[in-house]
Amino acid sequence: MDVDFYIPGCPPTPNLTKAAFEALLSGKLPPKGAVLAPDIALCDECERKATKPTDVAFTEFKRPHQGLWDSGKCFLAQGVVCMGPATRSGCGAACTSGNMPCTGCFGPTSRVRDQGAKMLSSLCSNVAAKDVAGIQQTLAGIPDPVGTFYRYGLAKSLLRRRVDLPA
User: What's the whole-model pTM score?
Assistant: First the structure.
């Protein structure tokens, strides 16, 4: 379906909604199909970004309800899946400020074609184990990969696209 503009979020924040109305009323419209939100990853506005690991080797993944998380430390550094690196900013880091990992509701930045695949690829490439049993044990900490990585974007996923369909 052809769409004039996208306002991301579940729900969109008041600031983005206000900015969208101001752009419409002023006549200063971005190109058709533009996303009316910053085009940077959520990590850039997260209070925890200074503790985001650059080199990590996951030995296990924990779910948000399985612990009390350090509010000053990146969720990924604590072994909790956080969609921040694959998610567009603009929400004010509401989830991470509330000590919950990002679920990805603002969708990907323009540089990410498939939000779930990007996050899945990033996490899997940083699993410490190199044998099948160890990898399976580590990934068992993500019991619902589709719900985790595609909560808001399964319809646009490349992973479910049939091979014989045009890109």
Answer: 0.86
